[in-house]
Amino acid sequence: MKNISFARIVILWFCSMAGWAQKATLTVDFSKEIGSMQPAWAWFGYDEPNYTYMKDGKKLLSEIAALSPVPVYVRAHNLLTTGDGTPALKWGSTNAYTEDAQGNPIYDWTIVDKIFDTYIERGMKPLAQIGFMPEALSSKPEPYRHHFVPGQSYTTIFTGWTYPPKDYKKWAELVYQWVKHSVARYGQKEVESWYWELWNEPDSPYWGGTVQEYCKLYDYSADAVRRALPTAKIGGPHVTGPAGRRGGNFLKTFLKHCTQDTNYVTGKIGAPLDFVAFHAKGAPKLVNGHVQMNMGTQLRDISTGFEIVASFPQLKNTPIIIGESDPEGCAACGMKTDPQNAYRNGTMYSSYTAASFARKYALADLHQVNFKGAVSWSFEFEDQPWFYGFRDLATNGVDKPVLNVFRMFGMMSGKRVDVKGNFMYPALTVRDSSVRRSTPDIGGLATKDEGTAAVMLWNYHDDDVAGTAATVDLTLKNIPAQKVNITQYRIDNEHSNSYEVWKKMGSPTNPTAEQITELEKAGQLARYGESKRQTVKDGQLIFSTTLPRQGVGLVTLEW
C-alpha cells in the first residue's frame, strides 16, 4: 500500500512538474534601471568584402541600416588583399597596393572606395580593418591566393596574405596613404567617427608572425593612422577566444605592450589604444541526431575578455568591441558539410541571439567595463543555393528569421530595466554551464525610454528538439502612464520565418518570381495579433502570452 501511494505521489509530482514547467512568469520593473541599452548589437561583419556592392549585398545593407536607429558599424576582412576583386567564399581583394618593376608603391583605392561608398551612402560606419598583407609586401608571398571549399580543412586558406611585411616602413606608408585618402574623400568629421583596427585573430594562423611582430606592426600602423588623422580611433588586437590560453595570453601581452612597453616607432612607452577587441564563439555539436548549442563557451570568452581588460587600470573606461560574437566559427561552412550548423536557417539562431545578447550586457555590468559593440559575423553569400545553411542574415535576398531579432533590438532604447523570471537562467549559470537543464531558459530583456518601453522575451534551450509551447505570465510594474498602446511581434515557425514558408513550398531550388515575393514578405518581422490600447492600473499591467520553444517575442509599449 505504501509503495502504491509513493508511486502515485511520484506520478502526480511528474505531472505537476510537466504542467508547471510550461507556466513561466516574467516580472519587469520599469522603475529599476540597471544600465544603458548601448546598441552593442548594431555591428556586423563578414569575410568577403566584394559582396558589399553586389545586388543582394546592397539590399541587405540597406535593410540593416533601416532597422537601426543609430549608425551601424560594419567590419570586413581582406580590405588590403591583392587580387582583381572577384568574390569567393572566405576571400576578397581590392588590389589597393602593388609595386612597379623598381619596387615603387602603386596605390589604387577604386575597390576600397566602392566598398566604403556603399556603407556611407546608407549612413553606416566602417570598422575599418587594416589587413591583410598585399602580395608585394608579404615576407612569404607564395602561394598567395587560396580557394576555399566548404568541408575542406581550414589550413588551406592561410597563405601569403597572412605574413608580416618585408618592409615595415612601406606598410606604414600604405596605411598612412589609405587614411589620408579616406579623409580627402569622406571628410575629417566622417572619418573621425570610424574605428581603425589591425588584422584579425593574430593569435591564430591568420597571422604568420609572432606576438612581438604583431605588436611591432601595430605600432607602425597606429603611428601611420595618427599621422594622417591625429583624432582617428585605432585599436585591436581581435584575438580568438580569451578564455583559451593562446588567445588570453596574446591579449594580455598586447595590452601590456600598449600600456607599459617601448613603442617600436616612437621609442616612448606605450601605444595608442582607443578600443580593445577580441572574439567569442560558441561550440554547437550533434548529439543523438540533433544540434546541441553551447552558449556557455561563447560567454566564457566574453567574461574572460572583460576580466582581462578590467585588470589593466589604465583601460578601465576603454571601449570594448567583441569583433566576432557568434554561435560558432565558420560562416562559410554550410550545414550539408558541417551538420552541427543546421541551427542557422530556423528559429534556434534567433532565440540563441536574443538570449546571448542579454547575457553580454549582464557580463559587462558584472565586470564594470565599457561594452561598446558585438559584431555578428554574418552577412550574405551571393549566388549560393537557397537556405544552404551558411551563417548569414539573408539567402538570395530573402531575410532569414535571425535578422528579425535585430529588427526587435532596433525598437529597444534608453535604459535597461530589471527583469526577473522563474525560468530565466542567471547569467553566470549560462556562462558556466550553458542551458542544459530539463527546463528551457524563458527570459527577457527590457528597456524604458521617453514615452516608450519594450520587452524582448525568448524560450530557448541548447538542444534543438521539439518542446511544448510555454505560457508566459508577464507582469509589467511601475509603468509611468495611465494608458498605453501595446504591440506584440513574434519570431516562430508561423511568424517572421521565410525558411518554414520555403519548406512548405517544397524547398524549391529555383523559386518562381511569385514565390520569391512570398518569401520576401515572410522574411519581415511580423506582428502577433492586433495592437491594443490598455488602461494601466496602479502602474501595472498583467497579461499572458504563449511562446513556442525557440520562439522570440517583443512587446512594445507607447504612451
Automatic annotation (TrEMBL):
Entry keywords, A to Z: Glycosidase, Hydrolase, Signal
Gene Ontology biological process terms in this record: carbohydrate metabolic process
EC number(s) per entry: 3.2.1.37
Family: Belongs to the glycosyl hydrolase 39 family.
SUPFAM superfamilies for the chain: (Trans)glycosidases (SSF51445), Glycosyl hydrolase domain (SSF51011)
Pfam families for this protein: Glyco_hydro_39
Catalytic residues identified in the record: 201
Any one GO MF annotation of this record: xylan 1,4-beta-xylosidase activity
Class of the enzyme per the UniProt entry, highest EC level: hydrolase
Glycosyl hydrolases family 39 N-terminal catalytic domain boundaries: 94-523
Signal peptide coordinates: 1-23
Domain of life: Bacteria
Stated name of the protein: Xylan 1,4-beta-xylosidase
Keyword presence, DNA damage: no
